[in-house]
Design goal:
Layout: H1 8-18, H2 20-28, H3 34-58, H4 64-87, H5 93-117, H6 125-143, H7 149-184
């Protein structure tokens, strides 16, 4: 594990947050193909998500900062897009509240664990799968193509189930980490 903060992988994670600025601008500025252009920018953000993990492992750039900024970048990116899509009426408010609440609980739980134990827990596979399907749902919601209409409700409910499952996995790990930390102090 490295102590360097500004590694290639961490810069890629930060760029994911920065990419939301032009994505929101393009999405909020109606013009021909503005939704498609916003999706292309968001897909660039998805690519940075894949690359940051690759570079962190390939060049041994895994760091505590990276373990924080990578999931935070996911949460900020998803949060920004979710809020925009609710404003535009493209996704239901209840879904947005569920997604944002889940992310807030996981992030605040991670901050609490770090403060209590000094340990930064990395993302889980269930969290990564959830983010992937959530990103797909949000991208298809942005595009609003009629030939996706038949899969949108099933995909939405799949995301709900994955969000619930991943929250349960994170919660179990949260309590396990606290329990182990408390037992070490005895």
């Amino acid at each position: 594990m490295t102590t360097k903060t500004w590694t290639i992988s961490n810069i890629l994670s930060v760029s994911r947050i920065v990419l939301m600025i032009p994505a929101v601008y393009v999405l909020a500025t109606p013009s021909p193909f503005h939704r498609e252009i916003a999706v292309l920018i968001m897909l660039a953000a998805v690519v940075t998500d894949a690359l940051d993990g690759y570079f962190a492992r390939r060049f041994n750039e895994i760091s505590d900062f990276g373990k924080i900024i990578d999931p935070l970048a996911d949460k900020v990116s998803i949060g920004v897009v979710v809020v925009m899509l609710v404003i535009f009426g493209d996704i239901p408010l209840w879904f947005a509240v569920l997604a944002l609440t889940r992310d807030a609980i996981i992030f605040l739980g991670g901050v609490y664990i770090k403060a209590k134990t000094g340990i930064v827990l990395p993302s889980t596979m269930s969290g990564k799968v959830t983010v992937a399907f959530l990103a797909l749902y949000l991208i298809l919601s942005i595009l609003q193509y009629t030939y996706f209409a038949g899969i949108m409700i099933p995909l939405q409910w799949l995301c709900v189930m994955l969000m619930g499952y991943s929250l349960a996995v994170y919660s179990k790990r949260f309590f396990y980490s606290l329990k182990n930390s408390n037992n070490k102090g005895k």
